[in-house]
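[stage:ingest] chain + small molecule (flavin-adenine dinucleotide)
[stage:ingest] validated
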Amino acid sequence: MEKFDVTVIGSGPGGYVAAIRCAQLGFKTALIERYNTLGGTCLNVGCIPSKALLDSSEHYHNASTSFAPHGIEIKGLKVNLPQMIKRKQDVVKQTCDGISFLMKKNKVTVFQGFGSFDSKNTIKVKNEKTENLIKSDKIIIATGSKPFSLPSIAIDKKRIITSTEALELTEVPKHLILVGGGVIGLELGSVYARLGAKITVLEYADSIIPTMDKALGKELQKSLTKLGIEFYLNHKVTGAKASAKEVIVTAENKEGKQLSFNGDYCLVALGRKPYTDNLELEKAGVTKDKSGKIEVNEQLQTNIPNIYAIGDVVKGPMLAHKAEEEGVFVAELLAGQMPHINYNLIPGVVYTWPEVASVGATEEQLKTNGQNFKVGMFPFKASGRARASMDTDGFVKVLAHTDTDEILGVHIIGPRAADMIAEAVVAMEYRASAEDIARICHAHPTFTESLKEACLDATAKRAIHI
Ligand code: FAD
Ligand code: NAD
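[stage:predict] done
[stage:export] tokens:
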């Protein structure tokens, strides 16, 4: 039986990053992955393929709507969906192959097969051909998550689909019904809206992306309405049924009235659930909480001291960069270092257009906590850079402490918000005040000047360009 210092189960951004860091720190490391390609949800059916399709569909949308005002004329523009999907697949392949290369480079032993516990120190790895037992001093569980659905909605993967199938459609839907107005629904809904599908969003909460600062959902809804997306807020989906060519989704509105919506596809995007099926955690004695997440302490250690768990399978936001940070954290902890993760400063991004990006507390959270705060706002329509590129929807919102001026939250909706949020994260990591950012020289013309202006507005209501 081969013996390792550390064995990681699952090769998503949590698992493969943990494996690389363990190897860098001198541990003899194994990585177990059930599928033939490494990279997990994120690389195979999540972050990377969805962004590839978002980029392609954005090119098409821009070519059909905003090239003409820029003085560029095109005739005969059309979508070649099979080519778009093929390019996405090429991007996925390149990215996944890159992880295999990194495993070789770092001398991580990869086992392809399904991993399950045999005891707290032994793992069985089974694939179609072989069954291996491996022994490991420490084990990191990074088995990720799977789409969640309601008992009344049977996912048939043809008409009633999850994000995985939505990344592989062979036709642009005529009418795609989105169950859930969260991040997956709005990103993939944007893809197909740009390609010409009618999109209807059914959302239980009173706003889309309801866990983010409320101002963001309101503004994003305005932009997506311009794209032709139709919204039904305060609508609780109760079921969905599919026939050969049609889906019927039922929902209940705030007044208790039952409504039904007909389309040709229905994308269920109601969140994701932790994945521990057939892992045989009981053989190692590892416990889960009521929601099925593996229970861990602040060190990401399970109730069994040599077993750790990271990423989507434990508490916290289900984000690739959170999983990566946790992978590095556990590896460094095992090496006797003192790593740290600031969970308050994990940014959240929605890759619609305009993009949405957030870090720190929302206005609603500050109010609930009774925190005194001030608000600084700057609209992109007042930004020269945004006018030049015709991307004037959205704003930067900065929340700062009333007395100390410390930045407590930054919420951006607008062009390149996903990249802009990094400045706010750095500032908040160093506990900057709004005035600190306001006094830093920002290149002109850039979108990031809008963050400086919002900080000027927060500090002393002295933004220059509004
Ligand atoms: P996963 O990536 O889910 O990886 C777990 C791996 O473990 C899988 O490869 C699985 O096959 C393997 N596995 C499970 N059980 C076993 C077993 N018993 N034996 C062997 N292998 C096993 N996050 C972002 O931050 N940004 C984004 O833009 C973004 N976009 C997304 C878009 C979509 C459509 C989806 C679905 C998700 C997106 N996410 C995004 C979320 C992100 O993909 C996850 O948060 C991230 O992948 C979690 O990483 P992980 O390592 O915990 O698990
Ligand atoms: P989500 O939690 O973002 O959204 C689910 C939505 O469904 C919520 O708005 C919720 O109010 C709504 N809902 C719940 N029950 C409902 C019902 N019965 N009827 C109508 N609406 C209902 O989940 P998701 O969009 O499936 O995404 C899953 C996870 O994947 C996210 O939590 C996120 O962490 C991750 N993800 C991240 C990115 C990114 O970072 N850009 C992209 C995609 C996915």
